[in-house]
Amino acid sequence: MIIEIAAITFFTRFVFAVKPGKAETSQEWRKSYLPIAIFTTIIVPSLLAPYGELELSIQNEYLIAGIVTLLAAHKKKNLTHIVIIGILVVFLLRFFQY
Length: 98
What we know:
Layout: H1 2-14, H2 27-48, H3 61-76, H4 79-95
């Protein structure tokens, strides 16, 4: 069952990334969607389940910091500032024991 789900997921993602008639991904797709997909795969589980179980509450400091950082990223567009804001939010939440 896991292999079937993996195959279906792969097929649905890969079909739209390949140019018709060629077996390689398009340059546009690699520049725009691949980094976002990889980043999301790494970060989202850490934000939603930091201790191994799904935690969608205001007690989840990682989720709050992620949301604040996402809003900052929308405004700032500077990676250094975004990282500093994310670290600062986590620090402040832990300092004040949110």
